[in-house]
Amino acid sequence: MSNKVEVQTRNIRLTENIEEYVGKKAGNLDHHLPAIEIVHVELAHYKAARSVNDRNAAQITAHGKGFVLRTEERADEALAAFDSAMDKMQRQIERYKGKHSHGRGDGRSAAEVADDIIDDETGELSPLVARRKKFVLHPMNEDEAAVQMRNLGHDNFFIFYNVETSKINVLYRRRNGSYGLIEPEVG
């Protein structure tokens, strides 16, 4: 049984060949994870992208009972971006299956495991914390945090206590290689 595939485009003409290609490949995702009910694919062309390799984007979102898996990739051609996103989605599915089925020892499918994370009484997702980690925050400024982030090999983000603002901040690396800073405020 093939899952439902929705294809949407932005600034790209959706030809029959593209729709058939995307539908066939995305329709096979339920072979990897039978719990997938619907797959939404969005292909977009951005004329103003800085790099030619970033002009076409493919975003794939797979919905199932109790989970949503999403990938986005960019390339110089729309179908190349889609193929890269499909490869990434298959890796995410394998990782999802590994987290939700290994170690249980009862041989249940990923769909049956996904049913367990939904509270039967409320129908809502149960809190699912796979790992907790504690660490000491050392007071530092933004420049020191950037140096620490590089030295520790943290590619995506670094949490630190900002000595200048007396608050916990998150330093993160943006797509273009620059840094961004999250300064939380209590609402």
Provide a descriptive summary of the structure in words.
There is one protein chain. The chain is of the alpha/beta class. It has 2 domains: 4-116, Double Stranded RNA Binding Domain (2-Layer Sandwich); 139-182, SHC Adaptor Protein. The protein has 5 helices and 8 strands; from the N terminus they run βααβββααβαβββ. It has helices at residues 16-27, 29-32, 78-101, 110-116, 142-152, and strands at residues 4-10, 36-45, 56-64, 67-75, 139-140, 157-162, 167-173, 179-182. The chain has a 4-stranded mixed sheet with strand order 1-2-3-4, covered by helices on one side. A 4-stranded mixed sheet has the order 5-6-7-8. Strand 3 and strand 4 (67-75) form a beta hairpin. The longest helix has 24 residues, at 78-101. The model has no long low-confidence stretch (mean pLDDT 81).
What is the element string, with H for helices and E for strands? EHHEEEHHEHEEE
The rounded distance between the terminal residues' Cα atoms is 47 Å
Percent helix, as a range, is 25-40%
- CATH class category name of the largest domain: Alpha Beta
Which CATH architecture of the largest domain would you pick? Answer: 2-Layer Sandwich
Secondary structure blueprint with pairings:
Layout: E1 4-10, H1 16-27, H2 29-32, E2 36-45, E3 56-64, E4 67-75, H3 78-101, H4 110-116, E5 139-140, H5 142-152, E6 157-162, E7 167-173, E8 179-182
Parallel strand pairs: 1-2, 5-6
Antiparallel strand pairs: 2-3, 3-4, 6-7, 7-8
